[in-house]
Amino acid sequence: MSSYNLDIRGFDNAFVEKSIGRRLSANKDIPNDNYLALLRHDRQEVTHLIDSMHISYSEFFRNPLTFAYLEQFVLPQLKYQKRKVTKTELRIWSAACASGQEPYSVAILLDELNQEPTGKISFRIFATDNNTEELEKAKQGIFNPSNMQKVSLKRVQNYFVQKKENYSISSSIKKLVDFSRFDLLEEQPASPSPSIYGNFDLVICSNLLFYYAPASRKRILDKIRKNMAPGAFLVTGETERDILMKNSFSEVYENSAIFQKKVLS
Description:
The protein is built from 10 helices and 10 strands. By secondary structure, it is of the alpha/beta class. The chain folds into 2 domains: 2-52, no CATH class; 64-261, Vaccinia Virus protein VP39 (Rossmann fold).
């Protein structure tokens, strides 16, 4: 699919097969062995297949255990470390942020942390994705009820405005997140342009790696690793823990999906 700027060789074979299977189900009158021929002359079907391969599902506080560790241990630890060094900001990167629920969740946690008696800390959240349509949704910050199932009533009241059946993230949280397009598989640029130089204290890249083949996973993790500050944390999805352990990362808390780079002796 070179004319569509999509190289499917980087995806995991099982994911590609499932995507094609969904399209075959939607085109029941097309024999399986004729689907490739259909792609050659039907640009609309190619577009449908590409859309089915876009990884865009997200929700607020998606993995409750992981976010509990972030709230109670990781973010307070990072705040404590930064407060010991004056004029130093906490830098966070939400990679493959989809429509924004993940970085907004972190922004809510940090806003709550800054209201505690321990004082405030300066922080910046950079959120990136390769899908410009999803980024536009993230910037709008309007979400349907299915995205809100793990948001407590208190947080709904403090950080959202209900608009008919949907919920709009408050402007105070929206302004804390910088959204931009970034392709994790491209060699350049090395880090999201708005961040200038990377050096992130916390990187969140959840539920993305298992869609890709091992070589692509390694390329993504190598890029993330280069962007991590000393002692930084990396958050992934629950089902991706084995991938990280096989790529020189150590899990900080058991079953948390929160990692740090292994220290090479």
